[in-house]
Amino acid sequence: MFLHLGGSSGKVGMLLIRRVGLFCRSAHLSPQSLEYRPIKKVMVANRGEIAIRVFRACTELGIRTVAVYSEQDTGQMHRQKADEAYLIGRGLSPVAAYLHIPDIIKVAKENSVDAIHPGYGFLSERADFAQACADAGVRFIGPSPEVVRKMGDKVEARALAIKAGVPVVPGTDAPISSLQEAEDFAKTYDFPIIFKAAYGGGGRGMRVVRDYEELEENYQRAYSEALAAFGNGALFVEKFIEKPRHIEVQILGDKYGNVIHLYERDCSIQRRHQKVVEIAPAAQLDPHLRERLTSDSVNLAKQVGYENAGTVEFLVDKHGKHYFIEVNSLTNYTMTFSKCRSLPELGLEQDKIQINGCAIQCRVTTEDPSRGFQPDTGRIEVFRSGEGMGIRLDSASAFQGAIISPHYDSLLVKVIASGKDLPTAATKMHRALTEFRVRGVKTNIPFLQNVLSNSQFLYATVDTQFIDENQKLFNLKPTQNRAQKLLHYLGHVMVNGPVTPIPVKAKSSSVDPVVPSVSLGEPPMGFREVLLKEGPEGFARAIRQHQGLLLMDTTFRDAHQSLLATRVRTHDLKKIAPFVSHNFNNLFSLENWGGATFDVAMRFLWECPWKRLQELRALIPNVPFQMLLRGANAVGYTNYPDNAVFKFCEVAKENGMDIFRVFDSLNYIPNMLLGMEAAGAAGGVVEAAISYTGDVSDPMRQKYSLEYYLKLANELVKAGTHILAIKDMAGLLKPEASRLLIGALRDHFPDVPIHVHTHDTAGAGVAAMLACAHAGADIVDVAVDSMAGMTSQPSMGAIVACTKGTKLDTGVSLDRVFDYSEYWEVARGLYAPFDCTATMKSGNADVYENEIPGGQYTNLHFQAHSMGLGNKFKEVKKAYAEANKLLGDLIKVTPSSKIVGDLAQFMVQNSLSRAEVEERADELSFPLSVVEFLQGHIGIPHGGFPEPFRSKVLKSLPRIEGRPGASLPPMDFEALESDLRMAHGDEITPEDVMSAAMYPKVFQEFKEFTSKFGPVDCLNTRLFLDGPKIADEFQVELERGKTLHIKALALGDLNKSGQREVFFELNGQLRSVLVKDTAAMKEMHFHPKALKDVRGQVGAPMPGKVVEVKVKPGQKVEKGQPLCVLSAMKMETVVNSPISGIISKVHVNADSSLEGDDLILEITE
């Protein structure tokens, strides 16, 4: 609201915005010192925003300024804004320092201070402080001590209002001295009632009580808050008015009896009885009511001889009846004058003051609205304000590096927006708040933005229950804060090393891969267009009709799973993706998802597997995508309810997946049929894959004979598979076996496409795939040359070259293969810490004996070297073969291969032979995976379970009959989504729900990691793994058109909290982050943190000090029972028990200082 103040006497003509104007103050001395003296030096006995505003006003008037500060405020901005600053309250608590009148007067006298401004809060409503100033011969900038006493004492102010004929809320005539008096009042006036601090305001010392059960606790909390905030815990009691509007009228009075009003403001939008948003003038206020409010305010001021600026506060009930609350005798108006004149002399006359426009003030605070506006504390890492036309800022400690402590008010800055009307002012305010960037502490800015967009706020009236009744205000859109989070990540890596486990000590290559040139425009048509147009059946027919051999490229999944421990990141896949789309459009498919890549993406790469699929789909629209689906296990290692598998396939198809290679580690038909049905129901191409083991060309090996595979294939074709696949996960297919198996399958199923997958561990992969192709296979799997061979797939270039010019010609350009390979040869160097060649220099034909799958072969080799068993890897492989025989000669692919590997390691670690294991099976403690396999957790192996070994191991343990997942109840996705939203906010997607369904713990850790460190998938791989070196400069593209320029500057020394400060330059501006040195902190003692997944561990909901511990060890507590009381920013919070149980341990005492989530106590259920 603009108030035009007419006149120019004394050169004072001011344009005022609600609550930000500058007014004349009286300066009161003792009676013997009434003579006029110019004010040359002013002290502000306060801190923060109000102190800064007084200093600014004084500076404009040429008056020297003095600040006082507590020991906890040495780094606060108000010290720097003053010409002089002095410490007060040495050794006192943070609040008590600003309440210590002797120290303040002493500083004033010693430094020739002419006048003291009390600000608001603290001593501003203490008559004894005003008197102490007068007694010391220092002017008190405010009303006389007598007026301060009358208006500061809420009970006496009520009596004066009654005398002046101003309506008041029923209340006590004097401060109460006992709980009994409150009970008596409640009996007389009934509930609800409200406790109020008798000698202070601002929402402190206020508690609403609705029944007798709440009375004692709220009385104690109100008393304690009032004592802490104002140095006096006296309370009075009033009848609580439900859903009133809170209207305040600004008044000005001089010592000649002149009083004017500056109209009203609506302060109804409150939390904890403290104003959040204020509007002037009050929207849709009845003119007659406005007249009554302003008249009563002026009359009351004249009744008491009020001098100075002040605020008269009222409640207005739903019937339009108003009630006096109090007079704030000192508000935040900050102009002083070298001499004081009457209001008319200054041109301040009532008939010349008119309302013109509208203004809104928002208090930006360090509070978390999603947690009940709990204060947040910490270090402001980034501060950037919103400014512009029609915006004014009055800040407190809003600057980069400021420490927000739990001891004082949570205000950061007051933002005032003005405009011609409320919607205009709200639009300006919203824009300004959007420009703010505050990092390091939580703020209420998202909440304020919701208020400003609320239709009731903009076009109707609001009352004090507005926040409580509009829960949509708490649907907060989280700030991204991506840049600062990434700096935290980079700093963490610089201090503590890689966040993903590194198997060997090797650094990423310093050479970046160069992407081959890609033509502009749309990529050429590929097989995906056929699939989209003809559907899965037409797609299968097109494959059979195709002339030549088709290839599936595994470089994007199985190749790096086999060679690089599945660590290749989306960042490097995306870079080469456009080249693949434009130059390999005639591929049958690109395997790029599923299998181990799903959980590894979250678990070790800290990126979303669904986002990988979405981004690759956008870059490669023309080539079909293929994934590995573990039958009834989807992409997990355990059993899931049937509906979870169906839902997973549905979401995968919606995100761009085309072909589902469905397999089961035991070729257990019921598990495979479920996966096939789920993939088919989702609209995907079903590729049923038979896992291959043994040797069909060896007549001595009859368990997995040719007849076994033909019978299995017949069942899968009858079940409706679109494509039939052979999955040779260990590379056991020899050329002769390939000819026999594929030839027989082609003869039996002439119309079904056949797809063959193998590994090149023995070095015969190319020969085997060529044999398959000549025998009738339509598709074979390959990897680009630099990612092929050893435990990966056969070389793409070799297959392309060997078939070129023949009837099997792939149609793939060999030159483009060379370009593609060159990119991956350099990119592979980035993953040097995970490259299998660090320990394994070649493949080995002994895979025909031990039958270890390609990816597992690599992992076992790594593990053997990390355990110091590198020279005993031969023994590990021998033990693997023996373990396989112990378990009945299994088909070995995840998860059955892991079971064999676990048993093999168990045998090696315990120096057990196969015979010893069989003999002592009933007394050994086997790995859990082995026990669960024998129970039937992953299905029934071909030929059944090995006996008597199984019975010896299981003894009386239960056995699962039939398909393991068939007996599981359906998964409740709505409940899961609800839980996820509660834990992580409303930004949860259907893809997130599926990730949590597959891997609950991994997803939880992934969300916590990205919440802390941001989108690390935007970083290049070298930065992700090793972090930057000092003086490194680099760019990070957050999204198209948004690029960060970062330079690493310096690494600080270890501080007493076990942290190091890491300095960066971000987009030309200095930034720093504090990083915990995990190695150093092992030698330091810190308060333990509450574990969120342990129900009985109760953590601090916010940083603060313990006021009271209400329980002791051994005490029985009920759910909801108060456990302790915390105080932060002069607000007290009761911590209630989350469960019923027995207190087993208490970790805090009264006066303990806590950080958020510090462990308070433990409860045993």
Automatic annotation (TrEMBL):
Positions carrying N6-carboxylysine: 727
Nucleotide-binding found in the keyword field: yes
Keywords: ATP-binding, Biotin, Gluconeogenesis, Ligase, Metal-binding, Multifunctional enzyme, Nucleotide-binding
Keyword DNA-binding: no
One Pfam family it belongs to: HMGL-like
Residues the entry annotates as binding Mn(2+): 558, 727, 757, 759
Function: Catalyzes a 2-step reaction, involving the ATP-dependent carboxylation of the covalently attached biotin in the first step and the transfer of the carboxyl group to pyruvate in the second.
Protein name: Pyruvate carboxylase
Pyruvate carboxyltransferase domain ranges (all copies): 549-818
Domain Lipoyl-binding: 1095-1164
